[in-house]
Design a protein that fits this description.
Mean pLDDT is about 75; it is low at about 40-50. The protein has helices at about 20-25, 75-85, and strands at about 10, 10-15, 25-35, 35-40, 50-55, 60-65, 90-95, 100, 115-120. The chain has a five-stranded mixed β-sheet with strand order 6-5-9-7-8, with helices on one face. The radius of gyration is 19 Å and the shape is globular. The chain is α+β, with helices and mostly antiparallel strands. About 15% of the residues lie in helices and about 35% in strands. The protein starts with 7 loop residues before the first strand and ends in an 8-residue tail after the last strand. It has a domain at about 45-120: Phosphatidylinositol 3-kinase Catalytic Subunit, Chain A, domain 1 (Ubiquitin-like (UB roll)), CATH 3.10.20.
Length: about 130
C-alpha cells in the first residue's frame, strides 16, 4: 500500500482526495518569472484569478506588473509611473497592435499572465509651423 501523499498548491496544503488532474485543469498558465514559479489559476467559474505581465519600453527595459483581472488598464500605467517615474498621461500601452483604453479592465482587454505590453510615450504637439 502506498504511503499517503501531501499535496500543495500555491503554498497551501490541499485537502485529501483532491485529484491532481482536476487541479491541472484549473491552471491557466504556469511558468517561471524571476526564478520563481508564476502560476495563473482560474476559479471554479473559469475566471482569471491573478497574474504578472511585462511592460516593455522602447529602450528595451522590462517592467513587471502584478495584476488582478478586475484592475483597470489605467492601473498598469500607475504601476509603471511608480516604478520608473513616467507620468500616466504620457504613457500609451499597446497590446496585440491595439491601444489599450484606460477605463477597460485587464480582462476586457484580453490581458493574461505572461502578456507583454509595449509602452510608448505620447508625443507632445500642437505647435504651429
Amino acid at each position: 500500500m502506498a504511503a499517503p501523499q501531501m499535496q500543495f498548491f500555491a503554498g497551501k496544503q490541499l485537502a485529501g482526495g483532491y485529484e491532481v488532474d482536476a487541479l491541472a485543469a484549473k491552471l491557466k498558465a504556469i511558468g517561471v518569472v524571476d526564478g520563481e514559479p508564476d502560476i495563473m489559476a482560474v476559479d471554479d467559474d473559469e475566471e482569471l484569478v491573478a497574474g504578472r505581465i511585462k511592460v516593455k519600453t522602447l529602450s528595451g527595459g522590462v517592467i513587471d506588473v502584478d495584476l488582478e483581472p478586475t484592475d483597470l488598464v489605467g492601473r498598469i500605467k500607475e504601476r509603471v509611473e511608480e516604478q520608473v517615474g513616467i507620468p500616466t498621461e504620457q504613457q500609451r500601452l499597446v497590446f496585440a497592435g491595439k491601444l489599450l483604453a484606460d477605463g477597460k479592465t485587464v480582462r476586457e482587454s484580453n490581458v493574461t499572465a505572461g502578456t507583454v505590453i509595449h509602452l510608448v510615450l505620447a508625443l507632445r504637439g500642437g505647435g504651429r509651423l
